[in-house]
Amino acid sequence: MIDNTEIITTKKGRSTFKYTAFDLACAEKMHERIVAVIPYADTPNFESWADTLRKMRLIDKRPAAEIGSVFRWANQDDFWQTNILSPAKLRKHFARLHKLMVQDAAKQQQPRRTRDIPLQESLTDCSWATGLVDTSTSEAPAIEHSADTSLEKP
Question: Where are the domains of the chain?
């Protein structure tokens, strides 16, 4: 099991990164999913990615499961899969992505609206046309054409 409590601190150049082993494992998993969509994606600085994921959990107060759900949804979306290529981009667009994910889930759960009338009944029921047509004969009603030529040019 990955220890989620021990903070690892690393210093690279001027940057200091803090993260847990859990954050680092999530960053690596995130990169695997990105490479599945974009095979030639650059190898990231995993410590920077892990630090950003830690900030999302601790500063932004986002549960790890929610971060994972939103990233998985974005990684499968035709548009967002090529735009969310790092935890920094995920963090930047998180509120929008979460809203879109919830809307998408609601749309998929909503039953398609159909009429309650069975198809066969709707094809044979002509009660809506009562009075419009003489139903005593099976012939179509004759349409009278008027010889009104008032629209023609003189």
Answer: 8-109
